[in-house]
Specification:
heterodimer, A: mainly alpha, two-stranded antiparallel ribbon, 4% strand, B: 7-stranded mixed beta sheet, 11 strands
Chain lengths: 340, 251
């Protein structure tokens, strides 16, 4: 009995308390917004929009936070994978035009899935080349990492112009994902429901991999103390490459989903979204996937509530949220204690 | 240099030997020609004042810092230039000064990662639970929530769960309460009784005397004395000359 009590205390000291604080913050924000909005149906619609945005930003940000945590690499080129994924995915979906226009949900989802998978494969492979050519030569030097990865981002944007042209490309959503479901006064956009579902599946999969597989444990251990992981006989560089590829592929998936969400894609969409991605990574605590998830939900919800209540404050609200959280927890919601 | 080891005491061939090892960290020349032999089946203490180069020696052996000159041979094969994971896989386990515990992982997960070659050996695990009962009690708890002494026990348990040829332990008693130091001393003596080869850095002279077979003393990046631990423990003048104060003053 006393053993289990001590074990519970140990778990609370070990991070459950911080996790609970993050969740309470989300609940508090939702309740505050409910009071501000004043209408339950509108609040539900805004909450769904916020959750959908948060899930998509989480998908894009999760790889970046692990890349930073594992090898201390600041990859400002992460936005390139978002843009590239969107363009590749949309090209695939455009080629599957009849599937996108079908009245069958299954066929529509198959088209989106094909675009997402091919987008992820291409960005994953591109991530491998980017890591070897651009990132590897600047391991351990933050200034060079920022400069060269920004340069890489610009080069990729220009390559997108070369292949797909300079104009924004509109993407109609698949037929059955257009419009909204209505329940009385509550309006739930279908695509946002899909985005929330995909985000939850990705988060659950990542959590399962990180907590139930040896490679996941190694990634978490490496984020905390890569030197010790090497001292136990595991090569961290190989692990990092694998994480970089997975993070790039997830950014590509995020790009496809963000493109369908905005219904238009541009070469610089990645760079535009990166502001929000960095805010989420910082709020969550560098290197923490769980923190990134909580941070993304907070930013998504805050953005949508404020956009409704005070539209001009929308982007500023995310920055304000980051400032407030950093004043409360200077290392983010769920920081990873660095052991090296 | 006093060197009773090479004059009369019969020894097994060294498992690890460092010859003329130099290590630079940035512009600093830390190790300035370290010569050190670690006999198999013995516990060698590496002593010296702060900043003498003890931790750098450990890290250089592990490949965490590469030597700029000199040779490190382990079981007859050269180690210099090899990456750290390869050195670990050749049979050298390391407990760093900061313990290197993965605080976000549970005690069980920490041990699971250390058992590189597969599932943990149950007999070995039972023995570790016997020596360090706290590990069993907090098996499912995050390692970051353990006390300093419990973390040190986990660090040592993690280093021995996988069979290794040589164990490097850097200042295991640093910052620990006397009761915990006593438990750790008992555990290390048990490890010794199984024939483990250990190189240990330690500032606690009482512990060094209790567990050490042989000793090497470092100063300014070099080994300035090698001999039997018992001889150093008995010679106060030598202790004061090499370490700045006698062991008795530390007890």
């Amino acid at each position: 009995m006393s053993g289990s009590f001590e074990s519970l205390l140990a778990r609370l000291r070990g991070g459950d308390g911080a996790r609970r604080s993050g969740l309470l913050l989300i609940v508090a924000l939702m309740l505050l917004a409910l009071a501000g909005v004043g209408s339950l149906p509108t609040w539900i619609t805004l909450t769904l929009a916020g959750l959908a945005m948060g899930m998509m930003v989480f998908i894009m940000a999760s790889g970046l936070t692990l890349v930073f945590g594992l090898m201390d690499v600041l990859n400002f080129g992460h936005g390139a994978f978002i843009s590239l994924g969107a363009f590749v995915g949309v090209s695939v979906m455009a080629a599957l035009g009849p599937w996108m226009e079908s009245a069958s949900l299954a066929v529509n989802l198959a088209a989106v899935l094909a675009g997402a998978i091919i987008g992820m494969v291409v960005t994953g492979l591109f991530g491998y080349v980017f890591e070897r050519l651009v990132v590897m030569p600047v391991y351990g030097n933050h200034l060079k990492q920022i400069l060269i990865t920004m340069g890489g981002l610009i080069v990729v944007e220009q390559l997108i112009y070369v292949v797909w042209g300079p104009d924004a490309i509109p993407i109609p959503r698949p037929e059955t994902l257009k419009g909204a479901l209505t329940f009385g006064d509550v309006v739930l956009e279908k695509y946002r429901l899909l985005a929330v579902a995909v985000g939850l599946v990705i988060f659950a999969t990542m959590t399962a991999v990180l907590t139930r597989t040896k490679i996941g444990l190694l990634v978490r251990a490496g984020v905390e103390n890569s030197e010790m992981v090497e001292s136990l006989g595991y090569p961290v560089t190989r692990l990092f490459i694998a994480v970089f590829i997975a993070g790039s592929a997830l950014a590509g998936l995020g790009g496809v989903m963000w493109g369908l969400y905005e219904e238009v894609i541009t070469a610089h969409m990645g760079m535009s979204v990166m502001v929000m991605v960095f805010i989420v990574v910082i709020i969550g605590g560098l290197g923490s996937v769980e923190g990134c998830f909580l941070g993304a939900l907070l930013v998504g919800l805050m953005n949508n509530y404020v956009a409704y209540l005070a539209p001009k404050m929308a982007l500023g609200s995310s920055i304000l949220l980051m400032v407030v959280i950093l004043m409360w927890r200077p290392e983010g919601l769920l920081p990873v204690a660095k052991g090296r | 240099m006093s060197d009773r080891l090479t004059h009369g005491t019969p020894l097994r061939p060294p498992l690890l030997s460092l010859s003329g090892v130099h290590t630079h960290i940035g512009q600093y020349h830390i190790l300035q020609g370290v010569d050190l032999d670690i006999p198999e089946g013995q516990l060698t203490m590496l002593l010296g004042r702060n900043g003498a180069g003890k931790t750098t020696t450990m890290r250089t052996i592990m490949g965490l810092w590469q030597p700029s000159r000199g040779e490190i041979r382990f079981d007859g094969a050269g180690l210099a230039g090899l990456p750290t994971p390869e050195i670990a896989r050749r049979g050298i386990a390391y407990v760093p000064e900061n313990m290197g515990i993965f605080g976000a992982l549970t005690v069980q997960e920490n041990m699971h990662l250390a058992a590189r070659s597969g599932p943990m050996d149950s007999a070995r695990l039972d023995w570790l639970f016997e020596v360090f009962p706290a590990l069993k009690k907090f098996w499912k708890s995050p390692a970051g929530s353990l006390s300093g002494g419990q973390k040190q026990m986990l660090a040592i348990a993690r280093a021995v769960i996988e069979p290794s040829r040589l164990l490097l332990i850097d200042e295991p008693t640093k910052g620990l309460a006397p009761a915990i130091v006593s438990a750790l001393t008992g555990a290390i003596l048990q490890l010794k009784s199984f024939g483990a080869t250990i190189l240990m850095v330690e500032q606690n002279f009482a512990m060094a005397r209790a567990v050490g077979d042989t000793v090497a003393v470092m100063d300014d990046g070099r080994i300035v004395h090698r001999g039997l631990m018992a001889d150093l423990a008995a010679d106060k003048a030598l202790q004061e000359r090499l370490l700045g104060l006698s062991m008795d003053m530390h007890q």
